[in-house]
Amino acid sequence: MSEEIPPLDAEHAALAATLRSKGLLPVSAMTAPVAEARAALDRIAAFLGEGSEPIPGERDITIPGGPRCRFYPAAPGAPVLVYAHGGSFTVGSLNAWDAMLRDLVRDSGVAALHVDYRMVPEHRFPAAHDDMLAAARWVQAHGAELGVDPTRMALGGDSAGANLALGAAMALRDAGRPPRYMLLHYGAYSTDVDSDSWERFGGGEYGLSQAAGEWMWQQYLADPKQRTDWRAAPILGEMRGLPPALLTIGTHDPLLDDQYELAAALGKAEVGVQLYVYTGLTHGFIRQGRHVAKVRQAMADSAEGLKAALA
């Protein structure tokens, strides 16, 4: 008999019920046009972030020859977080992550640059990786133009975005210009979807399914041989020389084993790592801070990690 799965966090479960009652349900790009899936995510995000106030000076910029980004300023000369949203490399937008990033900037005192990277199906691997890396390199070279300190740069993201952040950090490390810190929320670091946590939580009721995970990799990667490319599966890459990392994950997330594997690999490579596991949370929780106390704690932990590492 399989081990019984403990209950979800009560507020997290109540929020899911509220979203269902309002008809704010995710739409899978596996079974519907991608435009519908993207619009559904934006509607959910609008509810989750309702009442969020822009940060004075918040604005969109375009990296020359690279992606559009949204900049959330902090005090002059502040450190900066270059961030990539989640969404299976397929959905997600600048607007949908506004509230979360505004809260993180206000709580941490660290400015943020959110990268609107190219997505599937319009652009396949390595377009998203290249966009994240281009934004990070631009900040290192031109961050002073934004009023931030480019020598105190972190890379971060959630889910697919955490994959991109880790891959970009590896590329910068290889070029001799690593970031100072990594903030990685429930990242997909491996192209495998058959780990114990995938088997246990991958039925679809906890934010991800094994079918959706496999579909994601099939859509993102044009060639099966790319599954062993560290830019797609950064868990296969070299960890030595990377900056310290903060990892977060919920206990009911199919990607739980990915986080444990990455934390172990970083530790073996003598890279500082903190892994926070939040009881009763599922995949994709990071934008729920206005409704779920445990998510607010996760955001507070993230803000404290950024402040301490980039001081």
Describe, in plain words, how this protein is organized in 3D.
The chain has 311 residues and is of the alpha/beta class. It has a single domain (10-310), classed as 3-Layer(aba) Sandwich (Rossmann fold), CATH 3.40.50.1820. Helices cover 38% and strands 16% of the residues. The chain has helices at 10-21, 34-48, 98-108, 127-142, 160-174, 196-201, 210-220, 256-268, 293-310, and strands spanning 59-62, 68-72, 78-84, 111-116, 148-158, 181-185, 245-250, 273-278. An 8-stranded mixed sheet has the order 1-2-4-3-5-6-7-8, sandwiched between helices. Helix 4 (127-142) packs across helix 5 (160-174). It is globular. The N and C termini lie far apart (50 Å). The mean pLDDT is 97.
Uncertain residue ranges:
none
The shape, in one word, is globular
How many separate domains? Answer: 1
Kindly report the name of the CATH homologous superfamily.
Answer: Alpha/Beta hydrolase fold, catalytic domain
Do you know the CATH architecture? 3-Layer(aba) Sandwich
Mean pLDDT, to the nearest integer, reads 97
Percent strand equals 15-25%
Largest sheet: 8 strands, mixed
**Strand tally, please?**
8
| SSE run | HHEEEHEHEHEHHEHEH
Strand neighbour order, sheet with most strands: 1-2-4-3-5-6-7-8
Structural class by sheet pairing and helices: alpha/beta
Task: Please tally the helical runs, counting DSSP H or I stretches of 4 or more residues.
Answer: 9
Features:
Rossmann fold; 311 residues; globular
Structure described in brief:
The protein is an alpha/beta fold and 311 residues long.
